[in-house]
Specification:
Layout lengths: L8 E4 L9 H10 L4 E6 L3 H4 L6 H14 L3 E6 L12 H21 L3 E5 L10 H21 L2 E5 L9 H11 L4 E3 L3 H6 L4 H7 L7 E3 L1 E3 L2 E5 L8 H10 L6 E3 L9 H18 L4
Parallel strand pairs: 1-2, 1-10, 2-3, 3-4, 4-5, 5-6, 7-10
Antiparallel strand pairs: 8-9
Protein name: L-ribulose-5-phosphate 3-epimerase
Pfam families: AP_endonuc_2
Keywords: Isomerase
Length: about 280
Amino acid sequence: MMNINKIPIGIYEKALSSKLDWMEKLTICSVCGYDFLEICIDECEDRLERLYWDKSQKIELKDAMKRTEIPILSMCLSVHRKYPIGSGLIEIREKGMEIMEKAIQFSIDFGIRVIQIAGYDVYYSESTEETKKIFKENLFKATELARKANVVLAIENMDTIFINTPTKIMDYIEEIKSPFLQCYPDVGNISAWHLNMEEELGAIQKHIVGMHLKDTIEQVFRRIDFGKGIVDFEEAFKILNKISYKGPFVIEMWSDDNDDYVEKMIYARRMIEEKMKLACYY
């Protein structure tokens, strides 16, 4: 059972082998010392299909959560790279909004509090003033759906210029003005863009509902092993302590079905906890 007096550290689903069933995944999360799992709904059809499960298909995951006492507190909804809600093609953005609605319903069913949405208006096509406008309109509609479900949508700063900084997220938060639209910063992405960590996190301090922790190098945003990149995690935790953020963290990494993923999960957690201690974050 998750200890609410402890700062929760979760793990990104893709850190685990895709060959595992839900019981195996959540058991490994527990054995490796994690408090929760962040489920991923991405462009892979098998993961997207989860949003269309019937009641009987949901039983396996619910049973695994109950038996392992590992909750799923957040969802990484990265499938919008394929079906962006800012697309200039009406059929694409309508599919994106259908996915948004299904993701919110899925969150209700499994007790997920936060849906992390990527800060992309489009991904595989050119960003234009029109796609930016459509994105904002559909983000407002999505936030209203989330409000009805009491689920928080949280934008992550990404690897493209459209929303590459947490301060850009604030433009949407200030315009939409809803407690159901918040920030989900990624310290790895902040570092990969060589941004000022203190300025960026300070600008969003009242709106952070979750954080991704990953290592990166300049302009390389994924698949850098912890300890091999440029992210100053100790300094990040000092800043987070200063702005009084004590919410959940998700360690973001990718197993790619390699054999050493359990070892890397344990190492990453221990490294992060050590950096927290050095920063006097606890």
